[in-house]
TrEMBL record:
<dbReference type="GO" id="GO:0046872">
    <property type="term" value="F:metal ion binding"/>
</dbReference>
<dbReference type="InterPro" id="IPR010872">
    <property type="entry name" value="MDMPI_C-term_domain"/>
</dbReference>
<dbReference type="InterPro" id="IPR034660">
    <property type="entry name" value="DinB/YfiT-like"/>
</dbReference>
<dbReference type="InterPro" id="IPR017517">
    <property type="entry name" value="Maleyloyr_isom"/>
</dbReference>
<feature type="domain" description="MDMPI C-terminal">
    <location>
        <begin position="150"/>
        <end position="245"/>
    </location>
</feature>
<dbReference type="Pfam" id="PF11716">
    <property type="entry name" value="MDMPI_N"/>
</dbReference>
<dbReference type="InterPro" id="IPR024344">
    <property type="entry name" value="MDMPI_metal-binding"/>
</dbReference>
<feature type="domain" description="Mycothiol-dependent maleylpyruvate isomerase metal-binding">
    <location>
        <begin position="14"/>
        <end position="137"/>
    </location>
</feature>
<dbReference type="Pfam" id="PF07398">
    <property type="entry name" value="MDMPI_C"/>
</dbReference>
<protein>
    <recommendedName>
        <fullName>Maleylpyruvate isomerase family mycothiol-dependent enzyme</fullName>
    </recommendedName>
</protein>
<dbReference type="GO" id="GO:0005886">
    <property type="term" value="C:plasma membrane"/>
</dbReference>
Length: 253
């Protein structure tokens, strides 16, 4: 099964481990009470517990081809006690997740919160979940994050693919318009053009300018912008800045 950007289900699954290892390295021997400024309600411990719990939750659902959502609060996820080795616990969840994903047919139906109700949703989603929270951890401890370009290019597209399904965010219902366009462009080549229509938004891979255009050095910069890990004020913006701020305020998930 080919995914956008040429990725496959197996390639997504195998890329997760490297991201989890990078996150574990960032948090190892750090103060777990360190604030995570990109997730204001969390400290480093809560960030790691969330990420490792999501990995284990997804592992169980993929393993069982769950037809319905499992309740994480009802699962024993082995979260370490205060003072426990968070980095080791986080790393320990990556292998079983990748193994569960590789062991299933990517086209097998199962519950997913996105539009693609198949196993393949989870390989892609868990890669980018891991990337974004690795970035959170690095920013919290003062490491300048970098995202591999091939990962980031798919990560921006995945954000736009899942955004309409984040139903816990009622603000998403406002993401419509009369043809207004928002362009995200990276100096390394990847570019996206978002068009607001009366029925919502659509996007295409295009370097055409928009009513507002954001220019960043890399696709990684644009992925961090999409997921709210960096501000548009960090980049060159041309055109209708109010339109961009309107999008940012309503597309945060």
């Amino acid at each position: 099964m080919k995914a956008v950007e040429g990725w496959t289900h197996v390639a997504y699954a195998e890329a997760i481990g490297a991201e989890v290892a990078r996150m574990a390295k960032a948090v190892r021997d750090r103060n777990p009470a360190t604030p995570v400024r990109t997730c204001p309600a969390w400290d480093l411990r809560e960030l790691v517990v969330h990420t490792g719990s999501i990995h284990r939750w997804a592992t169980a659902m993929v393993r069982d081809l769950a037809p319905q959502r499992y309740e994480r609060a009802e699962m024993d996820l082995g979260v370490p006690e205060l003072g426990g080795n968070l980095a080791a616990w986080l790393e320990a969840g990556a292998g079983p997740l990748a193994e569960a994903l590789r062991g299933q047919d990517p086209d097998a139906p199962m519950w997913a919160w996105g539009g693609d109700q198949r196993v393949r949703f989870w390989s892609r989603r868990q890669l980018h979940e891991s990337v974004v929270h690795r970035v959170d951890a690095e920013l919290a401890v003062g490491i300048a994050p970098e995202i591999d370009e091939d990962v980031a290019a798919d990560g921006v597209t995945e954000f736009l693919d899942v955004l309409p399904y984040a139903r816990w965010r009622p603000e998403l219902a406002d993401l419509n318009g009369g043809g207004d366009t928002i362009s995200w462009q990276a100096d390394t080549g990847p570019a996206w053009l978002i068009t607001l229509t009366s029925e919502g938004f659509r996007y295409e891979r295009s370097a055409a300018p928009g009513d507002v255009t954001v220019r960043a050095a890399t696709a990684g910069d644009l992925m961090m912008l999409a997921w709210g890990r960096r501000s548009h004020q960090d980049y060159a913006v041309e055109g209708d800045v109010k339109l961009l701020q309107w999008w940012v305020d309503r597309s945060a998930i």
